[in-house]
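Memo to structure team: turn this sequence into structure tokens by end of day. - J.P.
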Amino acid sequence: MDTGKTIIIGSDHAAFGLKEKIKDLLFNLGYRVEDAGTDSDASVNYADYGKKVAGAVSKGEFPKGILLCGTGLGMSMVANRFSGVRAALCSDVFSVQMSRQHNDSNVLVLGGRVVGDILAFELVKAWLKTEFEGGRHLDRIQSIDA
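Reply from structure team:
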């Protein structure tokens, strides 16, 4: 299996519908998707799902993850507590691209109540296709973990 084409995704209740649509997009783009939950729009604790996704990325079980909650704020706070996780909360294509090119983000965080379906799809596609530039940016990233 091509581990570069695997991704883990999770959301809380507020972004459940958008998560399901993004899963379909990922499948259509040829990704194997692991859904860490939630599985409905019934109220849940976002941190539980943020920990599942960020933990799996931190341990190297998945190269990338996507997290969604109402605003994305809570999920990004949870995810960035994990070693080696560089979660980027984004709502525009330029930020998504810079999060990959300069910061090598490995978790994309979206606010389900902030971005609509079409924008979310564009953000995910841009995030997946944008490569990390390395060089001086690698030194900066390494200093975060030092």
